[in-house]
Structures are given as C-alpha cells and as structure tokens.
Amino acid sequence: MTTAPVRIKRKHPVDDVLPVPKLAAYGFQHVVAFYAGAVLVPIIIGGAIGLSEAELLKLITADLFTCGIASIIQAVGFWKVGVRLPLLQGVTFAGVSPVIAIALAHGGGTDGLLYVYGAVIVAGVFTFAIAPVYSRLLRFFPPVVTGTLLTIIGIALLPVGAGDAVTNPQTHEHDPTNGRWLLYALGTIVLIVLIQRFFRGFLATIAVLIGLVVGTVVALILGDASMSGVGDASAIGFTPPFAFGAPKFEVVGCISMIIVLMICAVESTGSVFATGEIVGKRVRKDDIAATLRADGVATVIGGSFNSFPYTAFSENVGLVRLTGVKSRWVVAAAGVIMIVLGLLPKAAAVVAAIPPPVLGGAALTLFATVAVVGIQTLSRVDFTDHRNLIIVATSLALAMWVTTYPEVSQAVPSWLEILFGSGITIGAVSAIVLNILFFHIGGRGPTVAGGPGRGISLGEVNKMTEDQFKQTFGRVGQNVDWVLERAYAQRPFADAHDLRGAFQDALLTGSTEEQLELIRAFPDLGSEDETGVSRTVDHKALDNLEEDEHSNVVELASAYRAHFGFPLVISARETEHYDRVLRNGWARMDNSETVEKSFALIEIAKIANFRFDDLVADANPIAAAVFGRLNDLG
Questions:
Q1: What is the SS3 string spanning 331-400?
Q2: Quick check: 580 pLDDT over 50?
Q3: Residue 26 needs a FRET pair 20 to 30 A away by CA distance; which of 58, 579, 603, 608 works?
C-alpha cells in the first residue's frame, strides 16, 4: 500500500518557542537593555510638568506595565494586529516635547495630563485606522530612505549611551573627566566583546546581560551602586486605568499627537525592515499594516493606563542583531517580565540600580549595531546616482545638527518645534521629502530598467519593440535570443513581479537543444578578455585572485568542459569564497551529464534573478520584496 507523503511545514526561527529558562534569560536581557529608555520618558515628562514623586512613580510603573502589554501584542499578535517579529515596544522619544507642550498649555500637573491622554487615545485610534492606507505608501520608502533613517537612529542614540557612560551614579550629573566612570563603561564593553569572542551558544547570546550584571556587582562592591531604592519601594503597586481622572480632548493637542504617531510610523517601519533583515524573514505590506495596528492599539492602551504613545524600540533591534536570538517569544517573555515589574515596584527598583556608566557602556554597543544595520542597507543603494547621495547627505547633516544642538528648536515657530524636536524626526522627514522630490515629482515615476537619468517605466517596457526589449534586458537572459523572445511574448506585464516571472518561465520552456545553447552561452570560470578583465563578472568570489588561485580555477573549468562539453556555471552571489567554488565544481564532476545540465539550469535561473534585481535598481532582495515599489507601477 502506498502511503501519501506527509508535508512537513518548516518553522521559521522567529516562531521557535525556546525552553522556559532561556526565554526568561533572553527576555530579561531585553528588559535590562530597554529599561533605561523605558523609564526616561516618564521621568522627563513628569519633571517638566511638575508632578510629585508619588505621581511620577505611578507614571513609571504604568509605563512598564503598558510596555509589556504592547510588546506582547506586537510579538505574538492577534487577527491582523502585530507583526509577529521580535520587536519590543516602548514609549517614543518623539512624543516628549509635544506631550510637555500639551500638558503645560492646560495648566501642567495632572490636569494637563488629562488632555495629553485624550490626545494619545485619539492618535492611537487614528493610527489603527490609517494602517492599511499607510502600507500602500511604502513605495516612498526605498532603501535610500530606510537605510538613512536606521543610520540616523543609531547615531542619534549614541549620545544617550555616551551620556550614561559619563554619569556619576551618586549625583546623576555628567562627569566626563572621571576615570572611574570611564573604566565602568569600557569594562562593560570589553566584557561583552570578550564573551562574544571566546564563548559560543547560550553564554554568547546573553553577553549584554552578563556585562550588565558583572558591572553592577563590581559597582556594588566598590560602593558606586546602591540597592537602597529596593527597600524604599512598595511591594505591590498597580496603577489603575485613568488614575488621574477621565481623559479630556482638545483639537490642537489631538492633531499634534497624530503627527507624532505618523512620524513614529516611519521609525517603526525602519525597525521592522531592520528586524526582518536580521532574522531573515520577508516583510510585506500587510506586515507593516499589522505593525501600525499594534502601535495604534498599544497607544490607546497607553492613554487609558496613564502612559504615552508606543512604537518599536530601535535599541532592542540592535540586541537581536548582537545576540542572534530570533525568536519573537523572547520578546513576549520580556513583555511578561515588564508587566511583573510594573506590578512590583521593588523588582523594578532592582533593575533601576544598574549604575549609569555600566548601562551606558552596554547601550553604546547596542545603539551602534542599529547604525550598522542602516549602513548595510545603504551599501545596496546606487550612489553613482547623485540624487541618492544628496538624500543621504542632507538628511544625515540635518539630523546631526539637531542632535548636537537641540536648542535650535527654540529658534523656529512653535508649529515647527515638532519637526526640529529631535534629530531622528528631522532626518526622517528630510529623507522622505527629498526622495519624493527627486524620484516621484516632475518625472515618470519609479523605473524598472536603465541607469540614473534614463530610467524606463513599466508602461514603456510594454510598448517596446522586440529589439528594444532585447537591448534593455539582454543581460538577464545572457543575450540568448530564444529566452528574450519568449519573455517578450508574455507582454503586457502587470507589474515588476510579472516581468521577472516572464524570464523565469522562459528559462524553463526551452527544448534540450535550446537549453544546451543557453548553458554554452556562459563563459568558462576564470576566462578573461583581451585586456585581462574577467568575463565571469557575476563571480565576486573570484575577484582579485592570486596567480596560483586563478590557475586552479582555470584548471577546474577546463576539466569540467572537457568532461561534459559545456562550461561550469555557478551562481556567484551564493558563493562567497574561492575555496567553495573549487569544492563545488570538483564535486559536480561525479554527476552524469543529464544531472549537470539540470544543475546548470538551476544556477542560470539564480543568476538571471540576481541580474534582474540589478537591472531594476533593487539589488537588495529585501527592498524588492518589502517596499513593493515596483508592484505599484502601471
């Protein structure tokens, strides 16, 4: 009896549920890395609007409690809410200035907070409602925009970590000339690096947590840290919804908070893209909409539970990158821990006892990794196009200007203060506006082929003659006529995905003779033109070889052709090292000719796919899959 094959669905690492001890340890590491930023916003706001210590404590515990709920919603998700990635939610720094302004405009203190919470709730509802529409605007967020934003976020956050690194634990004032604080910060960084270098597995993934624990213990021994706050804190302290009274609503405040949430949407988008790239999971338009719905729901909860607007916390994106732990359930565990901390002020006080220099050392490492993710995204941008250069340079310059001198916000009209409120805000708005100005206004819109200044739209592709089509897309099909003719015959193309599919289908429809013709159209590995330039331009693994290495490649290619009668074809983008090319090639010598033809066609399909990405100026596969820029053409 024949048994039907059982299809096993592969589980992505993001969905792995780790053992409880690991979930607890990894989750606690996220909480520790996040804690300072989580409590900083309510501390700043509370001090600025004149809250008492008891009222401020309510803000902090409410913030932690709501952060936990928001993080679980984003990481675990329900219905179409939550991106289901390891994204930890926190109160946005972009909302600090508007919140203070709204509160002070209505008398400050708890009276002013009631208008703040009304505006927060309205903004949350608006964000939830606008999510599907916002996701359709992603074509305005290509890699040049998101890469710039991520780089700015990382760099703009570095001064926060640097400030903690030189903060006196006793007075909480900056003391950059004190070598003691320098040693705490450097010691924490060195310990994290050494653990990453010499340990593997579980210990390596909790390097940041170990660094913070060890640094705090040393500070306690030397008298530079204190647990006195633990004794002073209450055992249990739940802040109920609307603890300060029913929210009040005022039009200007609601509009201001909606603008804040729209700016936060850009930050969340960048964080989602970065996290998706780190964990190796494709992010689609629906995922962005789900992210914003979660932001909206969390913000409504925040306004109801005496907190503020929520967004994905960029700091913890760096932690995911640094540790390599991809499970979203780790963030869910962190959410549970934060809920507990919000209910147990004594437990929260233990975390609060970490000395600023120790926390600053760890924060510097985490914030820098966010900037690195941005730089990696920008590495895929075509900077031979001066427009991309201007977008990045201008946005970065404005962001660093405001980050270095935040007082510039006082020199602009009050309605512009939100724009100049932070380097991240001005940098994000600049990148978006300049991208629209250079690529979407006064031209034919995004292009699907051609270099800077001579781009070709999808509509123009559909109107091409066959010869024009071959000239434009010839390289995708190795200039083999039958491939290009069959791809051309599939016009009109509905979108860029349809155009790509035309080439993929064409490659699979050739006869045995035609497929052999296609294989033979590829040059031998190691072959060079009359000027000595490699003809196998797809093979980055074979760039800059030493003479003996090049000879080994030529020997392999010659032996392969002599054995099979056609060239050895290997997809370069997936072969990073010269040694792997040799091992792969020699191993295939044992195959039959039929099997090798199949192998060659698979490799050719991969090469054609990468070449198509290059041609449409979206070499970053994540950009092509996520931003949906090309799919909106017509």
A1: HHHHHHHHHHHHHCHHHHHHHHCCCHHHHHHHHHHHHHHHHHHHHHHHCCCCCCCHHHHHHHHHHHHHHH
A2: yes
A3: 58
